[in-house]
Fold this protein.
Amino acid sequence: MYDVIIIGMGISGITAGIYLKRANKDIMMFDGKMPGGLLNEISSISNYPGYINISGSELAENLFNQINVLNIPYKLESIKDVRKVDDYFEAETSNGVYKAKNVIIACGRTPRKLGLPNEDKLLGHGISTCALCDGFFYRGKDIAVVGSGDSALQEALYLSNIVNKIYLIVRKNKMRASLSLQEAIKNKENVEIVYESTIKEINEINGQVDSIVLNTDRLIDVNGIFIYIGFVPNNDIIKKFDILDENGYVKNIITDVKGLYAVGDIVKKDVNQLVVAANDGVLVANHIIND
Ligand SMILES: Cc1cc2nc3c(=O)[nH]c(=O)nc-3n(C[C@H](O)[C@H](O)[C@H](O)COP(=O)(O)OP(=O)(O)OC[C@H]3O[C@@H](n4cnc5c(N)ncnc54)[C@H](O)[C@@H]3O)c2cc1C
């Protein structure tokens, strides 16, 4: 039986792991994909203290090195279910059942989709949610970026240095991002901001994105579509517990279920940033250490 199982190895889960391990807790971390979580999809970070600029993948690698230096055990297995049994928890993967006195949910959230019929099929064939991973494939081509928040504009700026032209598709008559990002994007000569528009159809040729049709019926030829229109919390394994708000986010880092905690983007918050997610990890670890 572990003291703590941490589900999710993004910055919030790893931070909790670092503090718990240094306090000699017997812990096990799990991730269904790869250590670093969302970090692996961020092209450039300029607001993380201590780094003037760092790529998400480099910060993820630094975190991974830190886990290894501290000998924090982890398994790259997806947790399918978490249950409370008496005064402990069981976390189940396809490889087995793991027991712990405490569980920290650090599962993050997943980018929202447009909801178009051929969207899933075209993911990886012209549709992407990761400029850092896929931007390279669109060198010299025309693409659409959908969204107007900080993430959309940050990634559009990165892509503007790679692609020929970007059509930034904005649903309303103004953007949501911070003013500095809005200024930066407006100064890019190869970015056309298309206000009051949504994509109503994606046309494909040979299974690849070929063009989009907007709600205004404008047809735009693009080889790629990068979607940044919000997120859905990864809460499937904790829906049975009465700890979620009306949007599916965990209400508090210390939940009403004794021994069950949540950190990072899966917790309801006003600002979803790396330092805030890491902060959750410290607070929860400290609570468990002092419990
Ligand atoms: C495009 C983009 C740009 C951003 N830029 C910045 C920036 O410049 N500065 C900044 O401060 N923040 C930025 N952010 C926000 C920041 O990335 C997030 O707030 C932070 O990474 C959240 O960390 P997390 O640990 O909560 O979750 P995540 O990083 O999402 O990690 C969650 C992990 O849980 C794993 N997981 C989920 N379910 C399970 C399961 N059932 N079993 C096992 N593992 C599971 C996932 O595989 C994942 O690895 C950006 C976000 C995006 C999308």
Notes: The two ends are 17 Å apart (CA to CA).
